[in-house]
Amino acid sequence: MVALAVAVWPRGDDAETPTPQSTQITSGVSGELRAAAGLAACPATATTGNGPLAGITLACLADGGPVDLAAALAGKPALLNLWAYWCAPCAQELPYLQQYAQRAGNAITVLTVHSDPDEAKALARLAGLDVKLPGVLDADTRVRTAVGAPAVLPVSVLVRADGSVADVVVRAFEGVDDIANTVARELGVAA
Questions:
Q1: Most buried among 76, 79, 141, 169, using CB within 10 Å?
Q2: Cellular location of this protein (predicted)?
């Protein structure tokens, strides 16, 4: 019993232990692979964030650094696209998302969320599609769980500026106009 108590007793060095909602950024992806993908930087943390994404920190695909999702998205509407390198409908819609992001400009944040642990294959897929959107790695699908999305891909999550979820779109977008119409209807952002 004493050994068990010693084994589970808290120690003073717990500040280094990640919380259950954080992600350790320890991928084996090289800087060269990240550079070859040429992704845009992830949104910078502006403030603290609210909503179901609060407390979720994921790795940025562009540089491997941590991204507090709710804080990075706070204050502006966002479209999060959950995808994986092996998903054919995802590969079809990612270029549409790139075009939509260019069309919408700064009116909305478009962020890809790779919902698979293989970061190297995600970077290679994005490079092959010439998609340069900012993205994060969600190896254990915490975003999907947090917003209550089903276990299918692709899924797009439309997030209001206050961090609340406006809609979870469980289908592939069919083009840039489809994205623009959906976002305008659910978030009021015209593009």
A1: 79
A2: Cell envelope
Cα dihedral 136/141/147/151 (nearest 10):
130
- Mean pLDDT across the chain, nearest whole number? 87
pTM score, whole prediction:
0.84
DSSP 8-state secondary structure symbol assigned to residue 168: E
Position 4 pLDDT exceeds 80: no
Give the DSSP H/E element, type plus range, for residue 96. Answer: helix 88-104
Residue 11, judged by CB atoms within 10 A of its CB (0-12, 13-18, 19+), counts as: exposed
Contact 161, 76 (CB under 8 A): yes
Q: What is the DSSP letter of 79?
A: E
DSSP letters, 29-56, are: --HHHHHHHTPPPPPPP-S---STTTT-
Say which residue the tokens 């891909």 belong to.
153
Alpha carbon distance 68, 145 (integer Å): 16
Q: Which two tokens stand for residue 87?
A: 């998903």
Residues belonging to the chain: 191
Give mean pLDDT, residues 148-175. Answer: 97
**Per-residue tokens: 169:** 């779109």
